[in-house]
Amino acid sequence: MDEKAENAVIEKELQQKPRRSFRKWALEWLETIVAAFALVTVVFTFVARVITVDGISMEPTYFDGNRVLVTALAGEAQQGDVVIIVHALEDTIIKRVVATEGQWVDFDPELGELTVDGVPLFGEKYGIENGITQIPQRPGLVMDFPQQVPEGCVFVLGDNRGASTDSRYLAVGMIDRRNILGKVVFDLYPFSKPGQARE
Fold first, then answer.
1. Could you say which of 4, 162, 172, 194 has the lowest number of CB atoms within 10 Å?
2. Sign of CA pseudo-dihedral 49, 53, 91, 182
3. Which pTM was predicted?
4. How far is it, in rounded angstroms, from Cα 103 to Cα 24?
């Protein structure tokens, strides 16, 4: 078959192929966009959420305006995990779990440290200064210590111990695990420090 005949056959095949209408093409794209939007909505409603840090209570780990990825699928919150908490104060808060159910929490005024089951939990373990963890001098607003963490609860502190309303305060108290939205698993913003959540 010569080249002219071959081109004629190809042209005939192209003419016989049904052309998709613009309407059909547009509907296919619309279906794809709607499906993608539905998937993203499900993921960010039930699987993971992006939370913006509000305030200074977690400095130097997290600063006001930082964005983090939070999920409830990363397992139960353990000592050292940074979590997002709802229904403790008016706004959603970010804090670090320092004790879990059954553990005894107290403060050593000489060391300036939290103790868990009688063992000091030094600040340097979480990248903060040692000797800055005290019971705030706010009579009537803070809990009496020592305290045992009840079943199904955790005790949380902000890393910026002197500027954190946390489980030391009666307004927050022990955190029911059902009020933990999820664990911080990934740092999203600022872009200069993205990556796995800081400990």
1. 4
2. positive
3. 0.77
4. 63
